[in-house]
Q: What sequence folds into this?
């Protein structure tokens, strides 16, 4: 088996596949069940760019201060969320079976946040519920540990364990338990391959 990832910005127009045994003077090679599989990630987050007047239809407030929509700081589109002590939360239901790869990703910008924070306090943060009723807490994609920085990308990927199916992901854009600073989040996604 051979796997490869198509480089960003590129599209595969054609795959030429050969079952080949060559440059040999004797012998026979047999091939069977040869295939090419394409894994296209499926996006599960609704309004990960926090656009429009109804962000609260997709994202609920979490923690002490929840979030506010910012029209002045954003990476793409015309809005992001600003978080001073809380978060924006969305439950997604991917029904991702064992062996699936789940990727959580997004961008954040920090203004005077507490430096050196653990991702438990400042990150894209996820709690997973498996179909057997068990949980995995605190899957995080953290951001730089400095007080202020421009838009930075972060991601975390993980494979769903054998015998398990991810039933629900509680996804948070989170900057919590702090008394100063603002963390902005934009272009948040959760994909399953």
A:
């Amino acid at each position: 088996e051979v796997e490869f990832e198509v480089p960003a910005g590129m599209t595969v127009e054609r795959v030429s596949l050969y079952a080949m045994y060559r440059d040999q003077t004797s012998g026979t090679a047999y091939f069977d069940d040869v295939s090419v599989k394409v894994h296209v990630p499926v996006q599960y987050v609704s309004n990960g760019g926090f656009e429009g007047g109804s962000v609260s239809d997709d994202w609920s407030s979490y923690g002490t201060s929840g979030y506010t929509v910012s029209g002045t700081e954003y990476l793409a589109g015309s809005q992001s969320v600003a978080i001073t002590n809380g978060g924006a939360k969305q439950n997604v239901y991917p029904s991702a079976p064992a062996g699936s790869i789940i990727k959580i990703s997004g961008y954040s910008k920090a203004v005077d946040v507490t430096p050196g924070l653990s991702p438990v306090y400042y990150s894209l943060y996820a709690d997973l519920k498996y179909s057997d009723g068990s949980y995995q807490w605190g899957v995080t994609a953290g951001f730089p540990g400095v007080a202020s920085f421009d838009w930075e990308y972060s991601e975390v990927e993980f494979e769903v364990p054998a015998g398990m199916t991810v039933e629900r992901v509680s996804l948070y854009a989170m900057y919590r338990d702090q008394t100063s600073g603002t963390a902005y989040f934009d272009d948040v996604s959760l994909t399953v391959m």
Summary: Residues 102 and 144 are 22 Å apart (CA to CA). DSSP finds no helices and twelve strands in the chain. The two ends are 17 Å apart (CA to CA). The mean pLDDT is 93.
